[in-house]
Amino acid sequence: MRTQGSLRLILNTKLWAQMQMDKASEKSIRITAMDTEDQGVKVFLISAESWGEDRLGLGPGELI
């Protein structure tokens, strides 16, 4: 994942179907993942044009 404008990499992690992903809004999801800088678990908010289940490769209702 890269920031808008500068295309700087800000998140480099895999998303699994078993991961807890919450739909924060129509254009963003919230995930929990490891932060390699401080070796801790953090909550990340990821924005996109839309986050439907089909875009994430999930079945209907799998995105919380």
Number of separate strands: 3
Name of the CATH homologous superfamily = Pleckstrin-homology domain (PH domain)/Phosphotyrosine-binding domain (PTB)
- Looking at the chains present, what oligomeric state does this protein adopt? single chain
Proportion of strand residues: 25-35%
Whole-angstrom Rg: 12 Å
Low-confidence runs of at least 5 consecutive residues: none
TL;DR of this structure?
The chain is 6% helix and 33% strand. The protein has 64 residues and is mainly β. The model has no long low-confidence stretch (mean pLDDT 70).
Report on this structure.
This protein is mainly beta and 64 residues long. The chain has a single domain (1-50), classed as PH-domain like. Helices cover 6% and strands 33% of the residues. The protein contains one helix and three strands, in the order βββα. It has one helix spanning 53-56; strands at 21-25, 28-35, 40-47. The chain has a three-stranded antiparallel sheet, with no helix packed on it. The mean pLDDT is 70.
Topology:
Elements: E1 21-25, E2 28-35, E3 40-47, H1 53-56
Antiparallel strand pairs: 1-2, 2-3
Give me some keywords for this one.
three-stranded antiparallel β-sheet; 64 residues; 1 helix; 6% helix; PH-domain like; mainly beta
